[in-house]
Amino acid sequence: MEAYSKDTYFMNILKQVEAETRILQSKEHIQHGTTTVYEHCVQVAYESYLFAKEHQLQVEIEQLIRGALLHDYFLYDWHNQLTPHHLHGFFHPGVALRNASMDVELTPIEHDIIKKHMWPLTIVPPLCREAWIVTAADKYCSFLEAVEPRLKAVKHLGRHWT
């Protein structure tokens, strides 16, 4: 959270989403490796925000951040062996969209981000620039979260991955 606290704009939107939704419940569930769903969503939102800012893209930046924060708003542990969530990758965008729609009024951009972020698994591609950015940031963050611990584990083999 330290890196984000330097950006007041981002933090204000994060605090607003925390106040309006049940997103803090996502701290209870692991997404990839040791990263919680909450940490993952915040990182995807921040990476999306930075990318749009650094490239001076013409996007609805607040909607980009809000949609990214809610993109994995499914609120369950998909690793739980007692209640396994088969095909989680295909179905969680719909669950996240339903949960988010129950808690807040979504804009069409936020709706597209949440519903399409798993493209190409969702088959229908994103329709707006913001959803494409979040889709790419999600893949990037997921890769790092899943692979980085494994790279550290093989570091003792003499390769300097990090």
Provide structural commentary:
By secondary structure, this protein is mainly alpha-helical. It contains seven helices and two strands; from the N terminus they run H-H-E-E-H-H-H-H-H. It has helices spanning 2-5, 8-20, 37-54, 61-69, 88-103, 108-116, 129-153, and strands at 30-32, 35-36. The chain has a two-stranded antiparallel sheet. A hairpin with a 2-residue loop joins strand 1 (30-32) and strand 2 (35-36). Helix 4 (61-69) packs across helix 6 (108-116).
Note the main attributes of this structure.
162 residues, mainly alpha, two-stranded antiparallel sheet, 7 helices, 58% helix, globular
Record the SSE blueprint.
Blueprint: H1 2-5, H2 8-20, E1 30-32, E2 35-36, H3 37-54, H4 61-69, H5 88-103, H6 108-116, H7 129-153
Antiparallel strand pairs: 1-2
Helix pairs in contact: 2-4, 3-4, 3-7, 4-6, 4-7, 5-6, 6-7
Oligomer kind = single chain
- Give the tally of β-strands: 2
Contiguous runs where pLDDT drops below 50 for at least 5 residues: none
Structural class: mainly alpha
